[in-house]
Description:
- Keywords: Germination, Membrane, Transmembrane, Transmembrane helix, Transport.
- Belongs to the amino acid-polyamine-organocation (APC) superfamily. Spore germination protein (SGP) (TC 2.A.3.9) family.
- The chain crosses the membrane at residues 12-30, 42-65, 77-101, 121-138, 145-167, 187-207, 219-239, 270-294, 306-325, 337-356.
- The protein is mainly α.
- The protein has a single domain (4-362), classed as Up-down Bundle (Amino acid/polyamine transporter I), CATH 1.20.1740.
- The protein has helices spanning 10-21, 25-37, 41-66, 70-78, 80-112, 119-136, 138-161, 180-189, 191-194, 200-203, 213-239, 250-256, 268-298, 307-319, 325-362.
- Helix 4 crosses helix 15 (325-362).
- The longest helix is centred in the last third of the chain and has 38 residues, at 325-362.
- The model has no long low-confidence stretch (mean pLDDT 87).
Amino acid sequence: MLMDNDKISTRQAIVFLISIAIGAGILSLPRQVDEMAGQDGWISIILGGIITLIGGLIVAALVARQKEDAVKISEKLAGRFITGVIGVFYIIYFLMTSAVVNQTSAEVINQFLLEHTPKGFTIFSILLLGFYAVRVGIEPTVRAVMVLFPIAMFAFALIVFTCLSRAKIDEILPVMTTPFKNIFSASLQTLFALEGFEVLLFLAPYLRKPEKAKIIVTLYSAVTTLFYLFITVVTFMVLGKNETKFFVWPVFMMIKGITAPGEVFERLDAFAITIWVVQIFTTLVGYYFSTAIIVKSLFNLKEESYLSAVFLPLFYFAANLPNNFAENKDLAGYVNYLIYPAAFFIPAFLLLLSFLKKAGGKS
């Protein structure tokens, strides 16, 4: 039984989920949608946000009905064997997703900040901070996120906003010149950046008011979609609708072009990367917590905090599987396929079972 001071409020849950979603996608999402949908890529983000909201509402309905984590829900509705399969799947899913994010963060830090630092050391440092957060518990960690997240997002948005002086509105006009098939395909690619709501499946026992899960995912989807939409539209207007796709990290290339009067900020891109690293930390913490909660529930352990030491080498090994940007991009493609069962199909399956069980019980 969790004490009340181990639980998080609705407002804290909203901010925590948003901070999980706004991470690695900031770097590459404008390039990804530009490659597939061209100047209409921003429309793909809106469609992706709608798809995310649908998946989030499915997860929210399940959490509000059962008020337990997905492993306990599955065990009650589907039995031990299926629960074991679902639990192992989610462990692999969070392991691979965190590997992509870890490798991306190490690539960016080594390219823009610490050029001579071994990538393995950068990855290990990020992992160590994340697992320390698991060790101290979710409530203190979320309280820290509540302080850091608004400051980081305001600063990053302000930096991007300063780029508007170089923006050209005609770079996103005319609208709907791309075939809808391409726009929709690009919207599916946005899910990797927009996802994060599936973590709610494992945060349910820590929510003070799980019945407000629908409010949590609705605000989460709205804020995340609008933020990525803002970043992408500004990037298109500054770099150009035909040029964005040629930059690996288009947002940072856009920020590098900022010139302050008197050269007050000589390396504004370095400041932006520092802010981004804070966001990457909160993204990874969500995945680490979820993995620990899965193992705790599968084996009926009393607490998950000491599992951080066990998972550290496993996550480090996974993060080093992709050796370069190309391999990491391929791994991200595979993870994008795993999002469908993790965020949509499995929650929908469990929600359907809960309705059938209730109907069977009444009969």
